[in-house]
Amino acid sequence: MTSVSGKTKNGFTYEGDYEHANSDRVTWTATYRQSGHFYGMRHGRIDQLMGVSISDVDDAVKDDIEATWTQPR
């Protein structure tokens, strides 16, 4: 399992983990906070990652974590 963290464009911090579900897919889970207070948790999956570098997978996971939190459903 790999850990990631960051800050969303709307001011929430997140801490998350992801793991490879198979050779071209990762699943992730993230917890969101603002000013130290818990605001929520989300999970997701990214497909079609065959041959993608580790740093690009990290970036893709961070982008998906942010999009899941900031974009309306």
Automatic annotation (TrEMBL):
Recorded superkingdom: Bacteria
UniProt keyword annotations, A-Z: Receptor
Name of this chain's protein: TonB-dependent receptor
Organism listed in the record: Dyella dinghuensis
